[in-house]
Specification:
The complex is a heterodimer of chains A (281) and B (289). By secondary structure, chain A is α/β, with parallel strands linked by helices. Chain A has one domain: P-loop containing nucleotide triphosphate hydrolases (Rossmann fold, 3-Layer(aba) Sandwich). Chain A is built from eleven helices and ten strands. In chain A, strands 6-7-8-3-9-10 form a six-stranded mixed β-sheet, sandwiched between helices. In chain A, helix 3 packs across helix 4, helix 3 runs parallel beside helix 5 and helix 5 packs parallel to helix 6. Chain B is an alpha/beta fold and 289 residues long. Chain B folds into two domains: 189 residues, P-loop containing nucleotide triphosphate hydrolases (Rossmann fold, 3-Layer(aba) Sandwich); 42 residues, no CATH class. Chain B contains eleven helices and ten strands. A six-stranded mixed β-sheet of chain B has the order 6-7-8-3-9-10, sandwiched between helices. A four-stranded antiparallel β-sheet of chain B has the order 2-1-4-5, with helices on one face. In chain B, strand 7, helix 6 and strand 8 form a beta-alpha-beta unit. In chain B, helix 3 packs across helix 4 and helix 3 packs parallel to helix 5. In chain B, 43% of the residues are buried. The chains are: A alpha/beta (281), B alpha/beta (289). Chains A and B meet through helix 6, helix 10 and helix 11 of A and helix 6, helix 10 and helix 11 of B.
Chain lengths: 281, 289
Amino acid sequence: MSFISIRNVFFSYDEVEEGKVVQNAVDGVSLDIESGEFVAVIGHNGCGKSTLAKHLNAMLLPDSGSVMIDGDDTSVEEKTFDIREKVGLVLQNPDNQLVAGIVEEDVAFGPENLGVEPAEIRRRVDKALKAVDMYEYRGHAPHKLSGGQKQRVAIAGILAIQPQCIVLDEPTAMLDPSGREEVISTLLKLNRERKLTVVLITHFMDEAVLADRVVVMDGGKILTQGTPQEVFSQVELLKAHRLDVPQSADLAYRLRGCGLKIDKIPLTQEECVAMLEEAMR
Amino acid sequence: MSCVLELKNISFVYGKGTPFEKRAVDNVSFKINKGEFIGVMGHTGSGKSTLMQMLNGLIRPSEGQVLLDGKDIWAEPKKIRSVRFKVGMVFQYPEYQLFEETVYKDIAFGPQNKGLEGDELDKAVREAADFTGLKPALLEKSPFDLSGGEKRRAAIAGVIAMDPEILVLDEPTAGLDPMGREVLLSQITRYHSERRNTVLLVSHTMEDIARVADRIIVMNKGKLAMLEPTAEVFRRGDELARYGLKVPQITKIMSELRKKGIDVPEGVLTVDDAFRALLPLLKKGGKLW
């Protein structure tokens, strides 16, 4: 069985009233995520991606259908804490999720709550801060850090709980370009080197391109999914749903429409330059 | 063209006389004309937010002068409040600043403090709501019942309703999806073209600034690195990258091609422009239909 197994999940924020049509935020989603995968979820505001994310650590429970994390059903109350130790959630605004006055105390908050031995907490905090490259800042006040640094501290706070999976809901939305790069390269490193499962919800296509798999959501449903190559080659479909594609893919798609022979839609700057250079020859 | 805002040798030092002393803004001078649309760029810590806060007297420059319509805004510190009606400031994530019972009252708060009442006030509120695309039905709702995008619009409407001579927007599109960004930007451009007021737009998204700004201010390490017409700024892509700014992917692709000796124009900012530039080249090579 997959590490995360979502089966036919429906969820609505509406209260059920007689004669009122209930709008589902998540509208019949099934999705499997394997251990060690890096999955990006894209889709515009209100498409249900954040709601789905909150199902992954039992913050929300499905109205119908099931979410299984490492074989445990999220709707079984006794399993809630086990599940939250396995799946950590990082949200958009770093200022809303840092609780302590000193970086290392903030990172220690999670394991402290789990009743971990003090010596072990020390070890975990140091390790987590080193993993996100914030160890030097362990004695600093979080509010004086940059956005990218704060977000990395938030990630360290999750790592200290030693989860198998980290779910991030638009973690870079409030950051500047260099802050975004810091956070994304940290995630890639954690995924590649520690086999941490990453579910990244984002509006930025250049981030989605780096994932193993991209899931596109629209109107509470999964519109399409596949490798970045497979997904972003469907320029027409994405545009019809008013979603962005990387600029390189957009350009290639339009040139192809004019008759240029393109085998593989380029997703990165390098691929696109190589493709155009070839075409100009 | 008349100059509406002039900065003369402005500096700002945080924590003066302490070990944490930091010169956030360092000897910045420039002039902005009435009705201009100015983009402001700079990486985190470049001093752009500090600079913006000096434009309406939220903080007082350590050195130098801010001249609004030719008058030093700090000439009479007791009257600094009046400057805040002339220079309207929309901060990042303004939706966290909503506080009133209804959207209408929230938008009316600024103009009311400015002294508007009755029909005049009503007109200001409704026009501002219209500019930001808020449906009249939403005005009687609690701001806390709105969606994220609607809250953002309501907060921006609250500043627009004061009809400021200069409107400063700090990252108004942060956190919105591509479509929401598009819509909000076009509403700001419409506001600008109808009211002919001066707008300063701070953004990390170069594609956005490229589309709307007449001129661009680039800040780097507290100093004014550039103040040039938009096309000129983006022609200097390598320099922008040195200032820690990210050039659109398409701009990089085109400049790489240029470096490889392919004759494409400099400073291409949109996929449209790139497409138009490449089409004749590919046609000549017989690669197209």
